[in-house]
Specification:
The protein is mainly beta and 185 residues long. The chain has 2 domains: 41 residues, no CATH class; 124 residues, no CATH class. It contains 2 helices and 9 strands; from the N terminus they run H-H-E-E-E-E-E-E-E-E-E. A hairpin with a 2-residue loop joins strand 6 and strand 7. It is elongated and about 55 Å long.
Length: 185
């Protein structure tokens, strides 16, 4: 159950474990990366309490941003600090940020066989990765870019002539703790 924890009421370590798909009875402690990522205290020697986890999440999935269908596309940028996803205290430089971008092409023309594409970045350090094409001689590539505090994406067609060279890109996963289910770097 990814997403944010309730913003009021009691919070337990069990709640944090269940939120990221672990067993509620899983043994953990306040110094574990998962707990510190929720609470915004990933920097060494930072005190954290479970109360800091209220209203926060560490993993989000679904249609987080999507482009239109075209030969060359851009999706709306996603801010990591506008309150939709993370609190700025959770985004300490030097820690990983995991994203997954998916490419959709019209299924009546050709299929997406190398999707979705993961990218692992380091918070505070910009990175851009081009995801492999969708397969064969007809390719629609995705480009995922992380520039501190923002994720953006684009896509483009390159390959043999086809009756429909259009595609669409979708940011479908962002996390501070775990890579998504796609392939890639």
């Amino acid at each position: 159950m990814a997403g944010k924890l309730p913003s009021s009421g009691a919070i337990s370590i069990s709640d944090l474990n269940v939120n990221v798909g672990n067993s509620g009875s899983r043994t953990t402690n306040m110094n574990e990366n998962l707990i510190r990522a929720f609470c915004g205290g990933r920097v060494s020697n930072t005190a954290v309490s479970l109360g800091n986890a209220r209203g926060r999440g560490v993993t989000f999935s679904g249609v987080l941003s999507r482009s239109n269908y075209a030969t060359s596309v851009s999706m709306p940028s996603v801010s990591l600090t506008d309150g939709t996803y993370f609190d700025s205290s959770q985004l300490a430089n030097g820690f990983p940020l995991y994203t997954t971008m998916n490419v959709d092409v019209p299924p009546t023309w050709w299929a997406s066989i190398n999707n979705p594409r993961n990218m692992t970045s380091t918070l505070g350090t910009g990175r851009s990765v081009t995801g492999g094409g969708t397969g064969g001689s007809k390719n629609f590539y995705s480009v995922t870019t992380y520039s501190p505090q923002t994720i953006s994406g684009s896509g483009y067609y390159s390959g043999s002539s086809t009756g429909n060279p259009n595609g669409q890109i979708t940011l479908q996963y962002i996390s501070l703790i775990a890579a998504g289910s796609g392939t890639g770097s």
